[in-house]
Amino acid sequence: MDPSQPSRLSDRGVSSVQFLIASGLGLVFFLALANIVVVQYGRGALRSALDQGVRVGSVSHSTERCEQRIDEVLDQLLGGAMGDGVTAECEISAGVVAASASAVFPSWTPFSADFEVEMTALATLEAPG
């Protein structure tokens, strides 16, 4: 076979297709990994907000102050689109302040479900003084 003659059975260009497929899969994998890291940050921010909310509620004996503190912390840590999917509420019963929250963090990769998170934090009411 003469190398100067083009051949229809040539495998030239196959490596570029393989590189393109491998690069695409690598990029999707990296994006999914980055999304998991961001969701873990969101879970930590939500945990911090609930903990601070019940602390304030246990001292003030007020569900309004508890919810206000949760909102303040979430505004600082989860501003923007990530904070839009978060709902939280506080209640006081039997000497305990309870704060619960649910959040939906959107997935960045196709064909994967959004991340749904539910958390609760508790604190004992402090004696007025």
Tell me what the structure shows.
- With about 130 residues, the protein is of the alpha+beta class.
- The protein has one domain (about 15-125).
- About 50% of the residues lie in helices and about 20% in strands.
- The protein has three helices and three strands; from the N terminus they run H-H-H-E-E-E.
- It has helices at about 15-60, 65-75, 80-85; strands spanning about 85-95, 95-105, 115-125.
- It has a three-stranded antiparallel beta sheet.
- A hairpin with a 2-residue loop joins strand 1 and strand 2.
- The longest helix has about 45 residues, at about 15-60.
- The radius of gyration is 25 Å and the shape is rod-shaped.
- The N and C termini lie far apart (about 95 Å).
- The mean pLDDT is about 90.
Q: How do the strands of the widest beta sheet line up side by side?
A: 1-2-3
Low-confidence stretches: none
Coarse structural class: alpha+beta
Shape: rod-shaped
Q: Alpha-carbon distance between the termini?
A: 97 Å
Tell me what portion of residues adopts beta-strand conformation.
15-25%
